[in-house]
Amino acid sequence: MKKIFISFTLLLLGTGSALADEYPTQDTVRYVLGCMADLGGQTDENLYTCACRYDTIRSKMSFSDYEEGVTFERNKKMPGEKGSSFRDNERAEHFYEELLTVREAADANCIVVKRVQMVKPTNRE
């Protein structure tokens, strides 16, 4: 019984750390659709480019850091007292700057695909 409890506990702890860095599906879809809109619409070419950019960002930032950077980006221009909590937040600004750096790397590493062509498989005999 003790072995089962220990195994179960280790399984939960191991799974928790793996899931902690997972980006939620909603945020994945939101990023890719926004990226595709910025590139000119929902095409296969834009999908390949945006998926590459997203994978690059995901590999370089945990979701919690990404989320904090995006939140700062979205709310830093909010006027008045409500916006001051974002404007005066050095921690969030740090993650925003990291997000900008990671986005630049993603843009540099991922080519903008001009044409997607389906190729028939070749027979290997």
Unreliable spans are: 1-19
Query: What fraction of the residues are assigned to beta strands by DSSP?
Result: under 5%
Q: What profile does the largest beta sheet have? A: none
Give a count of the beta strands, DSSP E runs of length 2 or more: 0
Q: What percent of residues adopt helix (DSSP H or I)? A: over 70%
Q: Whole-Å distance between the termini?
A: 56 Å
- What does the average pLDDT come to? 81
What's the helix count?
A: 6
Shape: elongated
Radius of gyration: 20 Å
Q: Mind explaining what this structure looks like?
A:
74% of the residues lie in helices and 0% in strands. The chain has helices at 2-20, 25-39, 44-60, 63-75, 80-87, 90-109. It is mainly alpha-helical and 125 residues long. The protein starts with a helix and ends in a 16-residue tail after the last helix. The longest helix is centred in the C-terminal third of the chain and has 20 residues, at 90-109. The chain has a domain at 25-109. The protein has 6 helices and no strands. Helix 2 crosses helix 3 and helix 4 (63-75) packs across helix 6 (90-109).
Which terms summarize this structure?
125 residues, mainly alpha, elongated
Quick synopsis:
This protein is 74% helix and 0% strand. With 125 residues, the protein is mainly alpha-helical.
Topology readout:
Elements: H1 2-20, H2 25-39, H3 44-60, H4 63-75, H5 80-87, H6 90-109
Helix pairs in contact: 2-3, 3-6, 4-6
